[in-house]
Amino acid sequence: MDITPARPHPRLDTYVDRYAARTAGMTASEIRALFAVASRPEVVSLAGGMPNISGLPLDVVGSAISDLIAQQGPIAMQYGSGQGVPELREQITEVMRLEGIEAHPDDVVVTVGSQQAVDLVTRIFIDPGDVVICEAPSYVGALGVFKAYQAEVVHAEMDSDGLVPEALRQAIASVEAAGKTIKFLYTIPNFHNPAGVTLSAARRTEILDICRQHNVLILEDNPYGLLGFDREPIRALRADEAENVIYLGSFSKTFAPGFRVGWALAPHPVREKLVLAQESATLCPPQFSQMAVSAYLSNHDWQGQIKQFREMYRERRDAMIDALDDMMPASCRWNVPDGGFYVWLTLPPGIDAKAMLPRAVTARVAYVPGTAFFADGFGSSSMRLSFCYPTPERIREGVRRLAGVLEAEMELRATFGASAPERGIGPYHGYDAPGTDLS
Amino acid sequence: MDITPARPHPRLDTYVDRYAARTAGMTASEIRALFAVASRPEVVSLAGGMPNISGLPLDVVGSAISDLIAQQGPIAMQYGSGQGVPELREQITEVMRLEGIEAHPDDVVVTVGSQQAVDLVTRIFIDPGDVVICEAPSYVGALGVFKAYQAEVVHAEMDSDGLVPEALRQAIASVEAAGKTIKFLYTIPNFHNPAGVTLSAARRTEILDICRQHNVLILEDNPYGLLGFDREPIRALRADEAENVIYLGSFSKTFAPGFRVGWALAPHPVREKLVLAQESATLCPPQFSQMAVSAYLSNHDWQGQIKQFREMYRERRDAMIDALDDMMPASCRWNVPDGGFYVWLTLPPGIDAKAMLPRAVTARVAYVPGTAFFADGFGSSSMRLSFCYPTPERIREGVRRLAGVLEAEMELRATFGASAPERGIGPYHGYDAPGTDLS
């Protein structure tokens, strides 16, 4: 007779009563499992936001880092300042100068990628129930942070010129009328993720004015600003307003993401709080990573490298737009981004991008359904297509597969009068994030 | 006439009404400014917890990282998994095997130093007002995290055998009687920071039993476990209890802190939550750092290196204990740690370590006052002395200076009947952390 005491099944979560309330906002997406499949080599992934860094000069990086270890190894491998390496912060101000920002290195905090900057800013500003205004759609990774800190996200509409000022005014008015507190506007003004659009110059002044009037801080997230295809870097919001803007930057797209070096530029008192938050979160960002990035910037024509990246991404953008023009049903709509990584595509009426995803993955092409980029369940008829990582040939092949899936879907709909039933994926429960936006 | 509109002084915090409530727990210590002074080269700092990594073979590290860039550069510089590099997680299980832990790499989450592991565990378990039981004293950096998440810290006494089981029972009973929720016990069983003591084998079983009975999770923080001077690695709490223990480890003291690579080993459902939290916090820990540490472990006799570290730290421990024996007033008490970085010293009755600190820094020696290691204002008659970073000669000189300051203080006290007044530092307001424990 077996008298072993009953033990819970190892996959059963016996800790479920003990988690913090905020973990309710930290759930794995149902489509996550699908993305594990989508990472197989035979699938063309138009889903992920991974930069293509194959053009980086490994010899330059290798010798810069070898010299770093030989000459400053004991410093690079030691703990450092919670705010980040001073020389790197100086270089960061030079990078930001390309967008018209005049800043002091003292007001820069280095972060573990700009994702951590979003996390730390949210940590110091958001109490549960506070409101963050976001564009509709918005970056999935930021929405995940806001949710984890129990913020309420209110979306404001965009069009081809970016965030619509009147929509922002209405969003602010509706939140104020509800008696809630808006802590900040989270915006990606350049080559938007996922919408691909850029905020026009005229609107920048207007957005700054609206936020100043309503005492709404602006969180300007700008990972793609230097990756414009057809023009010079655009003047940042922060360039015209130092007191009401926290600016976030990153080396993940202009150099390489594997070092996880991003930053926040913040008004001085906010910067002080961010450093305290960073010390609590990590003691200090990785000294070795920071000095490696700094050595790269010192030893290489990094602006020339960015120019090469821009040309490579422009070629891929062209490949995607050409393929969409050639192959997608006429009832689809998409924009032509002039920088960054993403095209936002809207399907014909009645086709659900999320319901279609399992069939697309079966046909060996992946994308991110639009619902991932909304906190409120919208976006089901849209999808984000990334042109950053696959080669132009693979992009064309991916679009071909996608067009085939979509045509089959439209045929089914014409026959049965509704979107085909979902296969292998449960009903919609809100948040669709693939997890890390990297799949 | 000047009609410029009045602008707030740039140092005035105009954001003060907008911060999250948790920022009240994220304050800079008053003694922080003093530590900026203490970092001057003429000051012997017995304050900081920086490891001495001067013995690391830079040539080995350099060539391992050069090979990494040449052979796997595009992977090392790319985004990675939120859970961490699989090969490194495999190696981490080998490191933990030295302490009797049998674990699967699937249950390991790589973090940005083990500080981030404390942050993420706290993030997923603590709601404001939840209780964390900590040893008295406890690690300043962990207390800072608990405070930032608005936890209530309840201390339980230690003696020379570590945490006292009866004190833990009483702490649990008092919290339960108050109707509050204990989320976990935070404990540093080996070569405690700051107390220098180690939990005895007999007590380990008892502590595990108490926590299991009361449904209190154990957060076992073990950065120093492999740095014992006089014995083999000690069996971890986690080695005898997989379901109720989250184990934290770090390469900061056994290799180098500049890569910021630590980890958490957690029961499977908790591990899943930690990965979600990590993705939200950073997308993924730095791939380059992780692969660099992995390459070091693969290419070097890392256990031999740890042996060298142990011998070097033992020599410094001996230098400190000898100097204390030779020079400190007989009315002081301290322990003789058999591993790690720290000696905990208690001053003669009536002498306040914090009040004395400005005078010590003037005499060119620094330490951390005991109050930094308590959430409740205790510890004023104690201090933490670190022997990890200065050379034996500097340690001896530091103790000489400290003994001089203390003798002057005792003389003043004998003359005036009370501790000398503080100079240049405000009144005590609770939390004394020097910020990052690294000064």
TrEMBL record, chains A, B:
UniProt KW keywords: Aminotransferase, Pyridoxal phosphate, Transferase
Named from the GO MF annotations, one term is: pyridoxal phosphate binding
Q: Does the keyword Transferase apply?
A: yes
| Protein name (database record) | Unannotated protein
The organism named in the record is: freshwater metagenome
Enumerate the cofactors the protein uses: pyridoxal 5'-phosphate
Q: Name one GO biological process term.
A: alpha-amino acid metabolic process
Q: Where are the transmembrane segments?
A: none
Record-annotated Aminotransferase class I/classII large domain positions: 55-402
Cite the record's note on assembly.
Answer: Homodimer.
